[in-house]
Amino acid sequence: MSSSPLSIQSLTHRFEAGTVNEKLALDRLSLELPAGQFVTVLGSNGSGKTTLFNTILGKLIPDEGRILLDGEDITRQKDYKRALNIGCLYQNPLRGTAPDMTIEENLALAYTRKASRSFFAVNRRDNRYFRELLAGLDMGLENRMKTKMGLLSGGQRQAASLLMATIAQPKLLLLDEHTAALDPGAAEKVMHLTETIARRDHITTLMVTHDMDYALRVGSRTIMLDSGRIVMDLSGEERARMTSGALAELFYAKGKR
Ligand SMILES: Nc1ncnc2c1ncn2[C@@H]1O[C@H](COP(=O)(O)OP(=O)(O)OP(=O)(O)O)[C@@H](O)[C@H]1O
Ligand SMILES: [Mg+2]
Question: Residue 38 and residue 207: Cα distance in Å, rounded?
Fold first, then answer.
């Protein structure tokens, strides 16, 4: 079972430091996620959400602070190394998959990457497993395993991408507005799958969303970022009592400061 705590300690990052365009994108941001916790992340455009994800993924090395995943300091670990332990999904369903490869090939790639098994060693039992996982999506994709990924609809592709991001049992799942480009029906379906998979595999998860309902309904804790800091952290009773209307008011009040 893949279940790991994430500890973010006083993370600071400036873009274009020392120039007139200097931007403090992360400002001594600290956040502790116990193993298996699912946290939704709100914050206006430019509040630092993607920058936070990029430092966790190793696409950016923060100026200061530390990131510990499962007790291991990964702050300066190479991005390709940590990618084996971190699954991620973005708004654009085209990202993170190979559109000219079939669904089956994409799943096989994601599945064998971590196990350092050869992609060509995927056997019939693995294929049966892929088929079962696809059947679980309830989109009929188990009968389209030879279809090229690029031919799927956005919703189908995000669902398949979610399988790819989680098939190797990551320690952490990062979702950056992964349902924002989908129609409401497809978004609901992918969101439901997200919760089901994260709960089933007990994956520690951070999910960025601009949707107040999802922010409160999905997972067990909601945080809000503003100017690279956490300005709200809701869980338990307090979160259960919060309404999406009241949350939206808080959101806009923060944005006006
Ligand atoms: N590569 C970069 N160079 C310079 N500034 C950057 C860079 N990337 C981000 N920034 C700035 O850092 C701040 C945080 O950006 P970030 O992308 O993290 O915001 P976000 O919360 O993800 O916003 P959105 O909701 O629009 O996705 C913004 O002011 C942005 O302009
Ligand atoms: Mg962003």
Answer: 8
Pairing of strands 86-89, 172-176: parallel
For position 115, what pLDDT does the model report?
A: 67
**Ligand 2 ion: nearby residues, β-carbon < 5 Å:** 49-50
User: Are residues 156 and 181 in contact, defined by beta-carbon separation less than 8 angstroms?
Assistant: no
C-alpha distances in angstroms, 62 versus 22, 27, 101, 131?
14, 10, 35, 40
Show me where the domains of the chain are located: 6-98+170-256
Confidence of residue 95 (pLDDT cuts 50, 70, 90): confident
Please answer whether residues 165 and 158 qualify as being in contact, where contact means their C-beta atoms are separated by less than 8 angstroms.
Answer: no
pTM summary value: 0.94
Q: Does residue 56 contact residue 2 with C-beta atoms inside 8 Å?
A: no
Query: Tokens 């009929």, residue?
Result: 140
Ligand nearest the Cα of residue 175 is 2
Question: Residues lining ligand 1, CB < 6 A?
Answer: 15-16, 23, 25, 43, 45-51
Ligand 1 centroid–CA 236 distance in Å is 30
C-alpha 252 – ligand 1 centre gap (Å): 19
Q: b/e map of 78-93 (b: 16 or more CB within 10 Å)?
A: eeeebbebbbbbbbeb
Judge: domain 6-98+170-256, CATH 3.30.470.30.
no
Would you say residue 114 has pLDDT above 80?
A: no
